[in-house]
Amino acid sequence: MSQRRQIHLSCQQPTYVVSAVGAELILEIYECMPSDADSFDIHGSPEVHISIAYDGEIVSQSTGKEKWSLHKGVEVLVSMQISSKNIGDHMVKVSYYRGEEDSALDSAIVYLTSVVVSLDIDANRDGELNRQRVDKASWTWGPEGQGAVLLVNCDRDNASSSAMDGADRIVSGEEDLKDMSRMVLSIQSPTALFSNHKLLLHVSLSDADKLRLFYKFVAVSGSKFKHVLGEEKLYYEVEPASGDETHTFYVEGLKFPSANFSGLVYIGITLLDCSLEGVPGSPLFTDKVVFRVAPWIMTPNILDPVEVFVCRISINPTFLQQLTDLVTNARCRLTICEDIDNRGDRWIQDEMEFGYIEAPHKHFPVVLDSPAQRGLTGFPFKKLLGPDFGYATTHPELNLPVSSLDSFGNLEVSPPVTVNGKEYPLGRIIIGSSFPMLAGRRMIKNVTDFLYAQQVQAPIELFSDWLYVGHVDEFLTFVPAPGKKGFRLLLSSPTSCYQLFQEKQQQGYGDVSIFQGLNVIHRTISEILADDDMKKENIYTQRCIDWNRAILKEQLGLTEKDIIDIPALFTLDKQKYANALFPSLVNMIVLGKNLGIPKPYGPIINGRCCLEEKVSSLLEPLDLRCTFLDDFYSYHEFQGEVHCGTNVLRKPSSYKWWHMIP
Amino acid sequence: MSQRRQIHLSCQQPTYVVSAVGAELILEIYECMPSDADSFDIHGSPEVHISIAYDGEIVSQSTGKEKWSLHKGVEVLVSMQISSKNIGDHMVKVSYYRGEEDSALDSAIVYLTSVVVSLDIDANRDGELNRQRVDKASWTWGPEGQGAVLLVNCDRDNASSSAMDGADRIVSGEEDLKDMSRMVLSIQSPTALFSNHKLLLHVSLSDADKLRLFYKFVAVSGSKFKHVLGEEKLYYEVEPASGDETHTFYVEGLKFPSANFSGLVYIGITLLDCSLEGVPGSPLFTDKVVFRVAPWIMTPNILDPVEVFVCRISINPTFLQQLTDLVTNARCRLTICEDIDNRGDRWIQDEMEFGYIEAPHKHFPVVLDSPAQRGLTGFPFKKLLGPDFGYATTHPELNLPVSSLDSFGNLEVSPPVTVNGKEYPLGRIIIGSSFPMLAGRRMIKNVTDFLYAQQVQAPIELFSDWLYVGHVDEFLTFVPAPGKKGFRLLLSSPTSCYQLFQEKQQQGYGDVSIFQGLNVIHRTISEILADDDMKKENIYTQRCIDWNRAILKEQLGLTEKDIIDIPALFTLDKQKYANALFPSLVNMIVLGKNLGIPKPYGPIINGRCCLEEKVSSLLEPLDLRCTFLDDFYSYHEFQGEVHCGTNVLRKPSSYKWWHMIP
């Protein structure tokens, strides 16, 4: 509470005041002034700082020697810079005078007790508590910003627990504690003060479900922790012992920022005067601190991979072997989700999105569970949640009316970009939606609200509802690349495929067919080029992609040089939704410079697939290594590809999210 | 859609493109270039504007005579400034060259059709439609800001309707129309275009419940209106006739800004290319406009009164007569709410709050119905809702768990203030709440969320839960005053009352009692001063008021000179809640310079009540006229006073809310 407190004076008896060190008090010099007084002087004990103010602005320090005119407008401000040893050991005296008379008409005495009651947190974000006098109740973004950070305690350090650490009301151990933010209450006060004053820690009703505070105390068996604030506990009475002491608390976040929650939570401590028997205690002053709950942050393709996830199903042994080789080359871990955990669901990209949360003192990965309820639905919670591996969901209630667009193949993130001078150092989230007028499928509000509320990766909504599955990963991806931007956007391009096939036809390869070696209908280049329906359908799908290309260029600040067109062809089904004709090359897994690209089964010319040759010729100059993985029977025929069937845990960005300005 | 659309070229056959006048198209010059070409030139028909760009920045206008190097990075942008008379009547031709050869290797031709499809609204807020090319899709605050405004159509112009105009899907007449915002669609296009193109107006799913769009068309009987967009209608196909025409629409708002609704709503129009049979139409371009739904705005005491409302109950004839005289002097209307409408509920201040909504083309008062469900509960809807008198509620669902703090005696607004340089030209809303740690009564979230969401009168929360009734109007009010600020804050002051009584005791009037002439226990000044319990209780209540004083000074930028202390005494009940001992002087009705103040029944000294004398001496120098209204038996004994028993409709502020920066 930075407000100046008003102190009523009396000439009849001394006034006793308790105040915080550094806080300004306004002495109400007019209330008790003798009616014939026209000036006053004021002096105090050495520790008392006395200022004279007009209109709320300090104009002078009082030396105790001047007389001041008693006209409305002069205010006297008093503050103390050190804490009291004894009750009332500081003093000020206001004396009232008439005209030039030397002797005072009357005077009012105030005995002051100054105390330190201060909450200390890591407001400067260096991982340590700060005792500097910063405004701990304000939180600002940017490299010069300040304000402490809270993690949602969504990992499971307690092996015996069945849920996240934040779901229980205990500190399960040292590891659990490390996920929390420390807060220390410092008290310097005469011990006697607390015989008729109380100290209350408090949270507002609206913040109480967003944090939990543990009090650390010493028991015979060592340090213990007691849940004292948060949830139904709105206040906690601190019991000072000596009056010169500190109390340590640990705070855990319980909720991520959301549509109804900015992420900021406040904790206050108030000194209550309970010296008057029979009436309620009245607040003397409050110290307040703010935390921002760390947002959930996604990791773009250009960040180093740590671990690749894939499902084992009956028909993908070849694919698994090829992927294993790729992952080995890329030097990261491979985790195969077995049948018992995937229950026949191969689409591990759709089930979850990896991200992380970070505070100055700690960071760990957090998997966001998609609202999709398929075979893999229990996997993130059962198999990933663990020590320093968090779990988050936007849909505590089950059985939401979800569509295919709610699967997380439809949730991607761009590399860092700068758009018209505005920086997105953690990139921008990309989700697919329906074009407004089509009133079609779109992500449910639970998910989009959650994504927008994280603030640090401002989402872009694309038009993906033209596709049968409807995921953005069906027509775009990002790959690392040399240069200032550090990446290229790869976009599916029917036009580019037609050009390639026309070239090949002109070179005399019109009779070469796609899908050689596969037990599906083979079509020659010339047949494809002569197919008017297919031509029309691909003019349409190219227009849909172009619409998104324009949005991406504008919203990511891209030029044509940042975009690479990757050959693709689509066919429309009866409902006029698009599906990839041959495996969609952009639906790849990106592991550093190693790309695992769906094997397209294009026309074999001079012993090499011309689609593979084309995409390699586009990507290899960027120092990328193209490996083509055969996903035809195992994924492609089920409307998905490599990217849909894998998931990658990546290292967090080295950029601290609190340094950005959303 | 301000994105640049990409146009694919072909050397085999001409490309046909439809574009908006003024929109930039990117010609994809590389896709069809002969492999041995190294430069190109481009020229077009006179109406076509051709630019050369590098990295998305325009660097040169093309005259058609230069040759440009074909290296990745050069982009060609094309736009047209006038609309086409016929399909494809504009043209550009790109020719490709090798080395110094004069004759082109090949060339690609594009036939362009340019059309105007534009939504016009009152984006510059002058009450008229604007055809200027402003960014109609962005809304900015401030005197230099731009963006159109929508009113919630919450009055009832249709006498035969039982609800607000926005509750039905019709335009009931000219008056109903005046409450809506006009939007005109301009089309300039070759008529033939619409044989295979469609125009769709659309709103997003999330905006669809916040507005309703009516289409004006001419029928035999005159103009008619058809509901075409909003609610379940997400899009509407406009059917152009000649191709050179305008279509008029009227938009009404359906919802006030709220916790989940910023107030901004968007309407788009998209030209769909349906020229390819058998595939869905694809979007060519979109024009988008934004409206902000006007906030509900409260009227501070310093605005001129228009009409006073009061209830007739069996025991208030004297009060009614005194109030009638006051209202007559203040030259405003008086409306007495009879028994049949008030059903024994006299607290008309608590039932509702008057405010208004304003757009550049229209404004009208809007009553906000409180969640309180007492005798008057039906009054605002049944008796006030009418032509150009709107009705709003924050609680469409009934039977919310409300407390006394949800009554609107606990909802006030300050006059305009400036706080540390930040201007609040419409004042700040003031609501009473519990002190955080007390976990006590507070306004329900429905109401506070609504108040915060209006944005233009940023609320301040005070601590009023120390009072039995718990309303801010029990201890504060604002009165007009000369000077730059234009007002004073009046605060109840037990200290000031004790001083006054001590003075009177010293002057020999200790034996004079309060409540003379009333059939209640009389207490003398000396008895009151000697009552230690009362003294203690009033130290406590003074501290509660001082706590609020500090908040008010900080949040309204006030100095002591802006505050007047008004004598008051409180007693605590068994639950330690405070009640006014004698009628609370600040609980007054303010009608311009005429104040209707509760008659305090203080000690009569020299023939005059010393409390009346004191308050008159404080307020009359401000050119205010004090009239004391006897509310003792009719209101005071039921824990309320004049302000609680009245309500005032005031003129709206002359300040336009969109000129402020929240």
> Hey, roughly how much beta strand do the residues of chain A contain?
25-35%
CATH-scheme architecture of the largest domain in chain A? 5-stranded Propeller
Q: Average pLDDT of chain A, to the nearest integer?
A: 93
Look at the structure and name the CATH superfamily of the largest domain in chain A. L-arginine/glycine Amidinotransferase, Chain A
Task: Give the helix tally of chain A.
Answer: 10
GO molecular function, one term (chains A, B): protein-arginine deiminase activity
Domain Protein-arginine deiminase C-terminal (chains A, B): 284-659
Organism (chains A, B): Microcaecilia unicolor
Domain Protein-arginine deiminase (PAD) central (chains A, B): 115-273
What's a concise summary of this model?
Two copies of one chain form a homodimer. The first copy, chain A, has 662 residues and is an alpha+beta fold.
Topology of this protein?
The structure is a homodimer of 662-residue chains.
Chain A: E1 5-8, E2 15-20, E3 25-28, E4 39-44, E5 48-54, E6 57-61, E7 68-69, E8 74-80, E9 90-97, E10 106-120, E11 148-150, H1 174-178, E12 181-188, E13 197-202, E14 211-219, E15 222-229, E16 235-238, E17 244-253, E18 264-273, E19 282-293, E20 297-298, E21 305-311, H2 317-329, E22 333-337, H3 339-342, H4 348-351, E23 352-359, E24 362-369, H5 379-384, E25 390-393, E26 411-413, E27 417-419, E28 422-424, E29 429-433, H6 445-453, E30 460-463, E31 476-480, E32 487-493, H7 494-509, H8 525-530, H9 532-556, E33 563-567, E34 570-572, E35 578-580, E36 589-591, E37 594-598, E38 604-605, E39 608-609, H10 610-619, E40 625-629, E41 646-650
Parallel strand pairs in A: 1-3, 2-10, 11-19, 21-22, 24-25, 29-30, 32-33, 37-40
Antiparallel strand pairs in A: 3-8, 4-7, 4-9, 5-6, 5-8, 9-10, 10-12, 12-17, 13-16, 13-18, 14-15, 14-17, 18-19, 20-23, 21-41, 23-24, 26-29, 27-28, 31-32, 34-35, 36-37, 38-39
